[in-house]
């Protein structure tokens, strides 16, 4: 799920830049997640598909059903409802229902951008895994094997 959160933040940042240039108010999740990019995100990540498939109803846990669900008007309606709830006075309650920490997106909230604040809280709860680092990666081989000097 961390890759999904990262992908969503990337899309969100692109959308914000476009809206800042056009002087538009904060966007909704339906503008951020659409038929094209949601399918691309899921298609591009086995991890995301593996996380989402078990959430589908039993007997419908196929990649075809997942693709259909991502294109469904019901998902768009749910995203619209969530956007509305996030942009209301119930923001903290909504985050509480998701088990998210409102403090994670407080910087965005101070600017009046509740959608970005929500996505920041999601990302804070599911941080992207750090790339595996080889502890000896920065040490040249000849330095490792050199005798220690006194």
Q: Would you give an account of this structure?
A:
This protein is an all-alpha fold and 150 residues long. It has one domain. It is 61% helix and 0% strand. It is built from 10 helices and no strands. The chain has helices at residues 2-22, 29-32, 35-43, 46-52, 63-70, 73-86, 91-97, 106-110, 114-125, 141-144. Helix 1 (2-22) runs antiparallel to helix 9. The protein is globular. The model is unreliable at 21-25 and 139-146 (pLDDT under 50).
Keywords:
single chain; 150 residues; mainly alpha; 10 helices; 61% helix; globular
Question: Helical element count?
Answer: 10
Oligomer: single chain
Poorly predicted segments: 21-25, 139-146
How far do the termini sit from each other? Answer: 50 Å
Give the overall pLDDT as a whole number: 77
Q: What is the total domain count? A: 1
CA-based shape: globular
**Residue share in helices?**
55-70%
Strand-residue proportion: under 5%
Overall radius of gyration: 20 Å
Question: Could you tell me the number of beta strands?
Answer: 0
User: How does the major sheet shape up?
Assistant: none
- Note the run of SSEs as H and E: HHHHHHHHHH
Structural class: mainly alpha
């Amino acid at each position: 799920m961390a890759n999904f959160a990262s992908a969503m933040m990337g899309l969100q940042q692109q959308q914000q830049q476009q809206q800042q240039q056009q002087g538009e108010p904060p966007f909704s999740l339906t503008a951020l997640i659409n038929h094209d990019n949601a399918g691309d995100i899921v298609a591009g990540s086995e991890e995301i598909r593996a996380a989402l498939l078990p959430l589908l109803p039993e007997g419908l846990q196929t990649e075809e059903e997942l693709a259909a669900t991502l294109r469904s008007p019901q998902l768009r309606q749910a995203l619209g409802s969530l956007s509305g709830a996030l942009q209301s006075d119930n923001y903290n309650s909504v985050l509480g229902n998701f088990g998210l920490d409102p403090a994670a997106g407080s910087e965005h909230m101070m600017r009046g951008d509740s959608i970005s604040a929500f996505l920041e809280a999601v990302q804070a709860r599911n941080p992207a895994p750090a790339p595996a680092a080889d502890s000896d990666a920065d040490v040249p081989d000849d330095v490792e094997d050199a005798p220690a000097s006194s």
